[in-house]
Every structure is written in C-alpha cells, then in structure tokens.
Amino acid sequence: MSTPQLIARLALAIVVTLGAARLAARAASRLGQPPVVGEIIAGLLLGQTLLGAFPGDPSRLLFPHQVAAVLSDIAQVGVALYVLVVGLHLNLPNIPRSGRALLSVSLSSLLW
C-alpha cells in the first residue's frame, strides 16, 4: 500500500471509529449509562467480534494490517498522554486518607 493510500485508509478508519464511538456514546447516555460504555461497545462492534463475523470480513477491509498497526501506535501515544494527564491531576495529599481503599483495590487487582 502506497503512502497516500495508507493515509486515506487511515483517515477513513479514524472517521468511522470516531463516528461509531460518538453514536454509541449518545445511545449509552440515553440509556442512563456513562458514554464510555457506548464507546467500548462501539469498539467491540467494529472489531473481529461482530463486524469480522460477517461474510467477506468487513473489519479487515476497514482496518487492514498496515492501518491497524498505525492505529495501534496512535492508541499507545493516546494512552501515554492520558496517563500523564491523570498523573497531573492526582491529588497527593488525599492519598493517605484513602490508603486503606487504595491498598485493598491494588491487592485485589494483583490477586485477580
């Protein structure tokens, strides 16, 4: 795939993904759920779970290997930036007050 084709396919994949996420977030909000629930469902619907089960594998047509690799890299940068923003908003003086809850959640996540 040439560079212009890759950029065009990547733009299409991003537009479809963001559009599906926005629509699903609105639907989740109307059902009384947080928007992130709808966004997660949209991600599942666009992936191999549902869209990939259709004949011709539309998921592979929308997200070919090269596009999926670039989207994965973009997602990794997004996660790193998100963690940075969360860290910037972390209120360190509140940690000792919620130490017991923090410890129990941390330990249970390790055991799970």
Can you put this structure into words, describing what you see?
This protein is mainly alpha-helical. The chain has one domain (3-111). It contains five helices and no strands. The chain has helices spanning 3-30, 35-46, 58-62, 65-88, 99-111. Helix 1 packs across helix 2 (35-46) and helix 1 (3-30) crosses helix 4 (65-88). The longest helix is centred in the first third of the chain and has 28 residues, at 3-30. The chain starts with a helix and ends with a helix. The model has no long low-confidence stretch (mean pLDDT 88).
Describe, in short, the structure shown.
It contains five helices and no strands. With 112 residues, the chain is mostly helical.
Helix/strand-derived class? Answer: mainly alpha
Strand fraction equals under 5%
What is the terminal separation in angstroms?
A: 42 Å
Q: How would you state the average pLDDT, rounded?
A: 88
Spell out the helices and strands N to C: HHHHH
Q: Could you describe the largest sheet, including whether it forms a barrel?
A: none
The tally of strands reads 0
* Low-confidence blocks of residues: none
Number of structural units classed as domains: 1
How many alpha or pi helices?
5
Radius of gyration: 19 Å
Percent in helix? over 70%
